[in-house]
């Protein structure tokens, strides 16, 4: 007896319908910040912005993974796979038995609506959270820009103040140097004024050389061009006149007792 294993033409294999899946792109965009600095403040602001960008990306990836997992769980719970209907073989020369059609049990429309509404509510909640994070990121970015502007203005003011301070310091240094030079000049002048000028008298003269007597009874000899303390250099020795003339204009001659 032959057995017909072919499936009847009127029978169709039942395959349960899957829900259409969609992934919402919730990757937030972040604003880019710019730096003109120079010193210790611009580097710290750039590090904070980089940390916030990475945190925003991780939050978006976590949201997408959570949506995908929720969808798969709901799909498994509310769409179980139905067993494939078995066909009854038909024996030739016997009365064909009617083929029992599989009973398809569909989910109540109310449960489908509840599940769909729950997914939509969760997605809306996640989207609202992402939107709030984006708003916070924009607010923080604006605050960082304001902070960078304030730091730049502060650096400019500090640079201007440093320049002004250096100029004042230079002026003060010049004034101090001038006052110190004046004080040294006054001190030297006072010292010269305090030292009594020595008195010399001509003791003997020859062309180009003179012997002078001092107040304490000593004798010194000078030639043309020699320095005579208190009178400058010797410029003229005149044996005929019996005088000696120095660069300061002083004229030294014989004492009143020698004349």
Number of strands: 9
**In what order do the strands lie side by side in the largest sheet?**
6-7-8-9
Number of continuous helical runs:
2
Percent range for helical residues? 40-55%
Proportion of residues in β-strands:
5-15%
Provide the gyration radius in Å.
58 Å
Taken from the alpha-carbon principal axes, the silhouette is rod-shaped
How would you describe this protein?
This protein has 259 residues and is an alpha+beta fold. The chain has two domains: 16-81 and 104-166; 200-252, no CATH class. The chain has helices at 42-78, 109-194; strands at residues 3-4, 90-91, 200-206, 209-214, 219-223, 227-228, 232-238, 243-246, 251-252. The strands form three sheets. A four-stranded antiparallel sheet has the order 6-7-8-9, with no helix packed on it. Strands 3-4-5 form a three-stranded antiparallel sheet, with no helix packed on it. It has a two-stranded antiparallel sheet with strand order 1-2. β3 (200-206) and β4 (209-214) form a beta hairpin. α1 (42-78) packs antiparallel against α2 (109-194). The longest helix has 86 residues, at 109-194. It starts with a strand and ends in a 7-residue tail after the last strand. The model is unreliable at 1-38 and 87-96 (pLDDT under 50).
